């Protein structure tokens, strides 16, 4: 995609990153999904973006012709406060989403490649994520080397080693 750019997440991107978190969490588009403001007040989701800029926070926003169309980010958690794909204190959890009308164009693969390269550069040994088994994104994750480790509350925790 010639007009695709990947830029680090800055403070001005955080509303879009929250929107992408909402997309990832409610990927089915259920009619009973809460409004985004309400969803972001849920501690289980807020943990992925609140106080962005902590040590270990890294992320990129994909833009097409300057318009944000996707985001991917990693965060370190600990056993007391973590996301759905938590493995351990040294394994950052990856989150990602692409706006619906830009899916299937390779943007997600580009976002994943950028985040895995950044994690490798940061000296990270593994990256984890959580995905529901029937989410089509699972096939992308598996195609780039994420392996299911366990099932938690109906979702798969997947891990990718970074050699």
TrEMBL record:
<dbReference type="InterPro" id="IPR016181">
    <property type="entry name" value="Acyl_CoA_acyltransferase"/>
</dbReference>
<dbReference type="InterPro" id="IPR000182">
    <property type="entry name" value="GNAT_dom"/>
</dbReference>
<dbReference type="GO" id="GO:0016747">
    <property type="term" value="F:acyltransferase activity, transferring groups other than amino-acyl groups"/>
</dbReference>
<feature type="domain" description="N-acetyltransferase">
    <location>
        <begin position="4"/>
        <end position="163"/>
    </location>
</feature>
<keyword id="KW-0808">Transferase</keyword>
<dbReference type="Pfam" id="PF00583">
    <property type="entry name" value="Acetyltransf_1"/>
</dbReference>
<protein>
    <submittedName>
        <fullName>Histone acetyltransferase HPA2 and related acetyltransferase</fullName>
    </submittedName>
</protein>
<keyword id="KW-0012">Acyltransferase</keyword>
<dbReference type="InterPro" id="IPR050832">
    <property type="entry name" value="Bact_Acetyltransf"/>
</dbReference>
